């Protein structure tokens, strides 16, 4: 029975995703430009896993992401057919997505993915349109795609004796199809009825080639070392050696655009160099180009980390960055949320807590004004920032942990100080033959007094505190951990008793209370804590004072954090569910990366490769399981999850982008003074639910019509409840004014609201 319900649930989720994306929102980065295409009026840019376009006529920018139906996989090519009003997107895994401009439909094509070929040779490299067909260059050969029917046709394996061969680009020239491959430039007569026969594809020039393109009466090819060649009717003759290999070559409106990492060359159709644009002319010498094209007299240059730039093609106007504002990159490692803002950091470490290679991406903030990206140059050179936390008592004070440089403090969006070994109790790890200051600050948590606790990995005094008076404290973990200077720390939480719970890499969980100066530990093994693994990554204390523990091999729950004071050996237990009449462990063997608790005490659990689970307060019911297959999640790899306690919005950071789910489980209020109802009035076109928000926990809510007839009753779990505007689910209520009577659980506080429904 349970399996049947799961099937119904996933069908419902698929339908909901297809029909209504209002509950999801995307916060994607568009900075890594993979490819660009154009129409006569519009440029189309493909970033890592999202698109945007800009019209030269209206000057408007449109974005398309997984929220709209794209895949979260990595894009490798894009092409816009102006004749067929379709945009074709190719991916590294072989997927192709077709966006129909006429009706707005988005179709995913998995024919290449399903081919019986090695997964690492299905990458889409290039699209070439000819006579209603798209010739798709892939790492195994060429595939035909019909623009009229949106169906695939023949596949050409054009290597020696029909072998798979990487085709980088194709071009149509004087009745022949030319293919730049890893093993020569090959061509075949386009009128041949049997192009699937590899014998039809003769070698014009041997060698490794990166591109081939037709430019009016010229055919140009570039080999893998950046040597430009011109075709002389029989063979390709060397023309010019570039200083770097070519990243892209595109012919558009009688011009040829050749892109290298630091230069764009613009040739006319006689191969005369009209313009040469270096990265210092666009921004600075750190800029790395990826592609270029033009729409009319506007040139567009894509970059690997800084988005899309534009300027006039014929003049020397300054370049403008036209990229939609978003986070610096999609791989957000950690975030924190307040009612008014979201903060994100990008520094990471691998599964063994190794931060190398170090990165320098800065820190980002999002609020109603949009994104603020604070660059590396402004954060006192803090590298690999892995955690960020907002002071719950001061929304304008933020701390970011660097897993190499220490602890960064920001006030009013401005970095003010970097705490390190010189001005705090933070310490650098000490390893033989490693004479580098390496301060691995990671997890942070505020206690109820406003003190900030920080873990400091791989040192004896691994627990630090920055007190509200600015003084630092330091606590040794050597008495509880066996190999303290070889241990790293994951999550840190503080419970109602002010006990600190620390997730460790090698020895399970450490609990510490400084009032009694007591340490206790839970680790792997039935008699020493019952954890499924010593490697603990996620911790959360719920509203029932239970400690939820996420490890690399599953989930455990400590039934009451107060047992820290009473039990000599703390023991956690698995959650046992019944599935198909069999007792099973919830999230058995799952690598759990994040756990958060919403206002209704539900648990949102992120995993390393299985997406997001939302389970009931006791874990017995899985209410949602979001993956790339049934939701806009761009990836099943979840880095972090946080919840806006005021709105209930669940923010999910993956390695492929940040999105949010419009949850309604908000935090409970202390009184009923802030109760509100939305939408109000409910208009005929509205198809959602009415929310009554700002509630006390366990508040009783009754809704009646104007005559006093009861149509709905519920008890809140958290700060919000939903009403589907039906009379106890039987039928939609009629137009009119409805009274909402709200009372606290003890009856000591009441509130009355109204909502108007217009059918």
From TrEMBL:
Pfam families in the cross-refs: PorZ_N_b_propeller, Reg_prop
Key word Signal present: yes
Domain PorZ N-terminal beta-propeller residue range list: 43-201
Domain of life: Bacteria
Signal sequence annotation: 1-18
Keywords attached to this entry: Signal
Protein name per its UniProtKB record: Two component regulator propeller
